[in-house]
Automatic annotation (TrEMBL):
One of its GO terms (molecular function) is fructose 1,6-bisphosphate 1-phosphatase activity. This is Fructose-1,6-bisphosphatase class 1. Residues 213-336 form the Fructose-1-6-bisphosphatase class 1 C-terminal domain. It comes from the Bacteria. The keyword Cytoplasm applies. It holds the Pfam family FBPase_C. Mg(2+) 1 binds at E106, D126, L128. Binds 2 magnesium ions per subunit. It is an enzyme of class 3 (hydrolase). Its cofactor is Mg(2+). HAMAP family: FBPase_class1. InterPro entries: FBPase_C_dom, FBPase_class-1, FBPase_N, FBPtase. Keywords: Carbohydrate metabolism, Cytoplasm, Hydrolase, Magnesium, Metal-binding.
Length: 343
């Protein structure tokens, strides 16, 4: 019997569809000698839930799940129907996966104790960031952080398992539901992005080893807050305008961050007169994106401190956020310092 070695067919008829998320996760398991597949399973559970949420978002206008739900969450924000749907989907996937002992969600007042004392991980998440934009067909997203519990496995969940600084994250990521659906994540070994191929039902590696530009020419801030922010912030924005930088602000955190991560830019949500402690949540928004930013060579601060060094003191703690290209973040901090000194 004659045989021949397999040779990949790279012609137009035999083009490669790429590496799937599942295969990529498996190939990276050796990076975590402390784990035995649990972290990989959590990432798969999140990917599965995001596929379901993606389906619900795409048919929202046809299935009466867009618009307000009628309740407000712990943040005092009006819940959208899709907020509730996404929260259910992610909580259900993480519960059935069996690797998580507790969940912190923007949509729930308290920690969700899964009564799974054998679970080694805690997940903090914003199930659907920017969901009010769904009614006008603007990109929205999911943000998540994964922490290892610090108390012994087998014991009840404790506050110290939850209230960990961002530097203790073992993985973090986001899903962007836009013109295409992307899952971007890091486990502390760089950042990789995967695009969802709906006909195959799989995420494929499309953005390997994402590296943020050192500098950029995009600034993202709600300039309607001009009268409520510090002189330092306003002075920095004026400097951006003098350089003919582009103002790009979608009002959907994941979408704004994703664009600046790839193109080079800075996203700013500072403290304001109405929100002196900032608006974005530390545990499940700022920490996750800061981890991704730093792994891609970018930077994230609250105006004074590195985001990942902040020790949380409350579940839904808020923080100002300056995040993006390292040179732009550093310069914005200099403007804030100069204003403090002059005062």
């Amino acid at each position: 019997m004659k045989t021949k070695p397999y040779e990949p067919n790279n012609s137009a008829l035999g083009y490669s569809v790429g590496v799937t998320l599942d295969r990529f996760i498996k190939s990276k398991q050796d990076d975590f000698p402390f784990a035995s597949g649990e972290l990989s399973q959590i990432l798969r559970d999140i990917a599965l839930a995001s596929k379901i949420v993606n389906r619900e978002i795409n048919r929202a206008g046809l299935s009466n799940i867009s618009g307000a739900f009628g309740n407000t969450n712990v943040q005092g924000e009006e819940q959208q129907k899709l907020d509730v749907v996404a929260n259910i989907r992610f909580c259900r996937a993480l519960t059935k996966g069996g690797e998580v002992c507790a969940i912190v969600s923007e949509e729930d007042d308290e920690v969700i104790d899964l009564q799974n004392s054998s679970g080694k991980y805690v997940v903090a998440m914003d199930p659907l960031d920017g969901s009010s934009n769904i009614d006008v067909n603007i990109s929205i997203g999911t943000i998540f952080s994964i922490y290892r519990r610090v108390t012994p496995v087998g014991s009840p969940i404790q506050p110290e398992d939850i209230m960990q600084p961002g530097s203790k994250q073992v993985a973090a990521g986001y899903v962007l539901y836009g013109s295409s659906t992307m899952l971007v994540y890091t486990t502390g070994k760089g950042v990789n992005g995967f695009t969802y191929e709906q006909s195959l039902g799989e995420f494929f590696l499309s953005h390997p080893n994402v590296t943020a530009p050192e500098n950029g020419s995009i600034y993202s801030i709600n300039e309607g807050l001009k009268s409520q922010v510090s002189d330092g912030v306003n002075n920095y924005i004026e400097a951006c305008k003098e350089r003919n930088y582009s103002a790009r602000y979608i009002g959907s955190l994941v979408a704004d961050f994703h664009r600046n991560l790839l193109k080079g830019g800075i996203y700013i949500y500072p403290s304001t007169a109405k929100a002196p402690h900032g608006k974005l949540r530390l545990l499940y928004e700022a920490n996750s994106l800061a981890f991704i930013a730093e792994q891609a060579g970018a930077s994230a601060t609250d105006g004074k401190n590195r985001i990942l060094d902040i020790k949380p003191t409350s579940l839904h703690q808020r923080t100002p956020l300056y995040i993006g290209s390292k040179a732009m973040v550093e310069e914005s901090q200099e403007f804030l310092k100069e204003t403090e000194i002059s005062q």
